[in-house]
Amino acid sequence: MAKLNQRMKEIFEKQKTIALATATKEGIPNVVPVGMKKIIDDETILISDQYLNKTLKNMEANHRVAIAIWDKSEGYQIKGTVSTEMSGPRFEETARWVEERGKSINKPLRSKGALILKITEIYCVSPGPNAGMRIA
To answer: Sheet containing 64-70: which strands, arranged edge to edge?
Structure first.
């Protein structure tokens, strides 16, 4: 498994919205913005499902996903496999976290599921000679 380093974690945490890419079984791509996300550990990212419809259907048929994170000077594409938890302790913790976040912005939010992304590859998407290079 590939692992996030400290700099990647900093960029991920500072970025309010990330891009989540999925594809159908036939390979038709789909990309959506995601705001409710957090790092579980160096190899695992949690994404809360509030509004994912087509994305969730794609993940059920094709468990491979990618996210993109970036700041002013560097960026990374993180690829992996995703599983969905619709019940259990991690789902309940995610639901509480999302509800609290919603209260803090005066917008009712409800999590429909916890998406667990296990990182398999990390690529550089920064401009320059390393663009597109697999780094982990």
So the answer is: 29-34, 18-23, 64-70, 75-85, 113-124, 44-49, 37-41
Contact by Cβ (8 Å): 64, 70: no
Residues in the chain, pLDDT under 70: none
Residues 6+ apart with CB under 8 A from 36: 47, 48, 50, 97, 98, 101, 109, 111
pTM of this structure: 0.93
pLDDT digits (tens, 9 = 90+) for 4-43: 999 999 999 999 999 999 999 999 999 999 999 999 999 9
With vertex at residue 35, the alpha carbon angle to CA 5 and CA 79, rounded to the nearest 5 degrees, is 45
> Tokens at residue 32, please?
């959506």
Task: Return phi, psi of residue 134, to 5°.
Answer: -75, 125
